[in-house]
Amino acid sequence: MVEVTVARLGLDSATNSYVVILREKLGTRMLPIWIGKPEAESILIQMNQLKRERPLTHDLCKALINGLGGTLRRVSITRVEKSTYYAEMQLDGAKGIVELDARPSDSIAIALRLGSPIFAPEALLTVLDLDRDEDSSTASLSADGVHELSAEQLQAYLENLRPEDFGKFSP
């Protein structure tokens, strides 16, 4: 396992899906993982240190772990099967170390909030050709058309969210 950090988060224009790009901490290899919109927003909010009026689900997870006297020792991206990525969260609490199955996107969002390390198998890391567009504030992965969101773009996006953007729900 190799320690990785969140290098960037963007929108894959080919699939209209969000992708988080993990980069090995002491190298240049990367691991792109396609994730859902709510998790992407949560990761971006944390990466850009934006404050929300009410806590998000990942903030609640952080509060629960801290409130119960636990620590998140590490997140591990464990494998990929049929285009689905798997992860485990290693928690240390009153009953010792517990490993929980979790989605990588949720695990990453929680690890960022708790300052916990993230690891990935060396076999999943690859060298990606990143092109930087000199005329704009976006960066793209040349093969996949992934665009990075700036802090200003994220803030504008979040300010324009409406309740109906989250789907139907009953109070």
General description of the model:
This protein is α+β, with helices and mostly antiparallel strands and 171 residues long. The chain has four helices and ten strands; from the N terminus they run E-E-E-H-H-E-E-E-H-E-E-E-E-H. The chain is globular, with a radius of gyration of 17 Å. Helix 1 packs parallel to helix 3 and helix 2 crosses helix 3. Strands 1, 2, 3, 4, 5, 6, 7, 8, 9 and 10 form a ten-stranded mixed beta sheet that branches. 29% of the residues are buried. Helix content is 25%, strand content 38%.
The largest sheet is: 10 strands, mixed
Distance between the termini: 44 Å
Give the CA-based shape: globular
Based on CA atoms alone, the radius of gyration comes out at 17 Å
- Summed over residues and divided by their number, the pLDDT gives a mean of 79
Poorly predicted regions are 131-147, 162-171
Beta-strand content: 35-45%
Helix % is 10-25%
Q: Tell me the series of helices and strands, N- to C-terminal.
A: EEEHHEEEHEEEEH
Summed up, the helix count is: 4
Please state the structural category.
alpha+beta
Number of strands: 10
Q: What attributes does this structure have?
A:
171 residues, ten-stranded mixed sheet, alpha+beta
How would you sum up this structure in a few lines?
By secondary structure, the chain is an alpha+beta fold. The protein is built from four helices and ten strands, in the order βββααβββαββββα. It has helices at about 35-45, 55-65, 105-115, 150-160; strands spanning about 1-10, 15-25, 30-35, 70-80, 85-95, 95-100, 120, 130, 140, 145-150.
